[in-house]
Design a protein that fits this description.
This protein is α/β, with parallel strands linked by helices. The chain folds into 4 domains: about 5-120, Rossmann fold; about 170-330, 3-Layer(aba) Sandwich (Rossmann fold); about 335-405, Helicase, Ruva Protein, domain 3 (Orthogonal Bundle); about 445-485, Homeodomain-like (Arc Repressor Mutant, subunit A, Orthogonal Bundle). The protein has 21 helices and 12 strands. It comes from Chitinophaga filiformis (Myxococcus filiformis). This is Two-component system, NtrC family, response regulator HydG. GO terms for molecular function: ATP binding; sequence-specific DNA binding.
Length: about 500
């Protein structure tokens, strides 16, 4: 159960918020004094604090600093009057998660609390999503091995990036060489890589090693934004600017002022938003939705996409002028299948993380599982690997070895069917064995079907489940066609 602390010198607000949030499954404590709140926080861990800006014994700015000093992970939401909105915006820049303007609306409070906890969970998941390796090679959490130009790990980089490790393969070394070069600059960066390769983690590393590392890092997933919502999330809006805008909202650009703004899946933004983004980058000012006032911003922009933005430009889905604004430097993250030598590093670190999560000791991974890992295509990359390790550790009794039976079905099928090209009787020449008449329309259709199935099977490494999905048929139909076309396994 999440612990929430409410700090307000109005007893009615404390009582109402306590009852309302308590009904929604939260454990709530209240106090009317800043000094008492700090004492309570030293005795008990609170996940979230709702704090009035104006208290009798202190002000919100000082209390925010004191709260974050006690527990930097505590989420702080400021409650403020209409005249204090500018102050609240400054507090958000100094570490508060968000603010609420009086009068308070229950649904708005609940939505913001849920959003804050979702953000906290996502941050913790991100921090745990990448394994760590120390300089001497022992695993210890999730950090990055960065090599200097002479091939030795860079101590300064390691000190600040102890949460990340991306491996020791040639691809990883080149990746971090580029991060090390571009981080101290103010270049805009495009990060290109498949889903699950760790694009946001790379963006964090660039920020951590930049001159802006003490300023905010704000991440926004553009893939989940509608055209209407994107403008509000990026640039903010004024109270009453549209239906449902019951409070003024500061957007991602304002939140990231002085720091770094990371836009994930930027190719999904609509054309109108791309035009607005181009203007912001050129003029270095933003206008909130519903306002004519221009607000200066100083933000370094890092964008990411799982497809090449140049290809999106060629297809007419992304503005070429905006692409060139972003494309001051491009970083490519290689997929896991291109750096199989890093697998032991990731597996070891993920197992340690999962052992802490489950509070159990997992045994060793069998040679058969290692062989399966090395052959598998890893379409979900590092994210998929972590999920596979979590599943395997959960299904394996404590201290017992992890076996093939604990792996997902698609992995076991893929492993059982390899390598077909070398030692199975599939006619890979592209000719149907049963062809008798090249002019027969039915035979020609069968030949085309045969070629398509063979090509798809090759593409998915002979995983029949995935092949059926790509062919838009069920597995039973696929098996029938394999028998009909004499594709034997």
């Amino acid at each position: 159960m999440r612990n929430i602390l409410i700090i307000d010198d109005e007893i009615n607000i404390c009582t109402l918020l306590s009852k309302f949030l308590g009904k929604h499954g939260f454990k709530v404590d209240t106090t009317m004094s800043g000094a008492t709140a700090l004492k309570m926080m030293k005795e008990k861990t609170f996940d979230l604090v709702l704090c009035d800006y104006r208290l009798k014994d202190t002000d919100g700015a000082q209390l925010l600093q004191d709260i974050l000093q006690i527990n930097p992970r505590t989420i702080v939401i400021i409650i403020t009057g209409y005249t204090d909105v500018r102050v609240a915006v400054d507090m958000v820049k100094n570490g508060a998660y968000d603010y609420l303007s009086k009068p308070l609306y229950p649904d708005e409070i609940l939505n913001l609390v849920h959003k804050a906890f979702a953000h906290m969970d996502a941050e913790r998941e991100r921090e745990e999503s990448m394994p760590m390796r120390t300089v001497n090679g022992s695993s210890a959490g999730s950090a990055a091995v960065v090599e200097s130009s002479d091939g030795e790990p860079d101590g300064e980089m390691l000190d600040k990036s102890h949460k990340y490790v991306y491996g020791e393969s040639n691809g990883a070394k080149e990746l971090f060489r580029q991060i090390k070069l571009v981080a101290p600059t103010d270049y805009s960066v495009i990060i290109f890589g498949e889903t699950g390769t760790g694009k946001e983690s790379v963006a964090h590393l660039i920020h951590h090693h930049s001159k802006r590392h003490n300023q905010p890092f704000v991440a926004l997933d553009c893939g989940s934004l509608s055209k209407e919502l994107a403008a509000s999330e990026l640039f903010g809006h004024e109270k009453g600017s549209f239906t449902g805008a019951i409070n003024t909202k500061i957007g991602a650009f304002e939140q990231a002022h002085g720091g770094t703004l990371f836009l994930d899946e930027v190719a999904n933004l609509s054309y109108d938003i791309q035009v607005a983004l181009l203007r912001v980058i050129q003029e270095k000012v933003i206008r909130r939705v519903g306002s004519l006032k221009e607000i200066p911003i100083d933000v370094r922009i890092i964008v990411a996409s799982n497809e090449k933005l140049s290809e999106s430009v060629a297809k007419g889905r992304f503005r070429e002028d905006l692409f060139h604004r972003f494309n001051e430097f491009t970083i490519y993250i290689p997929p896991l299948r291109e750096r199989v030598e890093d697998l032991p590093l990731f597996v070891d670190a993920f197992m340690r993380q999962v052992e802490r999560e489950l509070q159990k000791n997992c045994g060793k991974i069998t040679n058969e599982v290692w062989e399966c890992f090395s052959r598998y295509n890893w379409p979900g990359n590092i994210r998929e690997l972590k999920n596979v390790i979590r599943r395997a550790c959960l299904l394996t009794p404590e201290h017992e070895d992890i076996t093939l039976s604990t792996l997902p079905l698609e992995m076991k099928e893929s492993f059982a069917q390899q390598p077909y090209e070398e030692d199975h009787q599939v006619n890979m020449s592209g000719e149907l064995i049963s062809i008798t008449n090249e002019n027969d329309l039915k035979t020609v259709a069968l030949q085309a079907e045969y070629n398509k199935i063979i090509n798809v099977l090759k593409e998915v490494k002979y995983n029949k489940t995935k092949a059926a999905q790509l062919l838009n048929i069920d597995r039973k139909t696929l098996y029938n066609k394999l028998r009909l076309l004499n594709i034997n396994y």
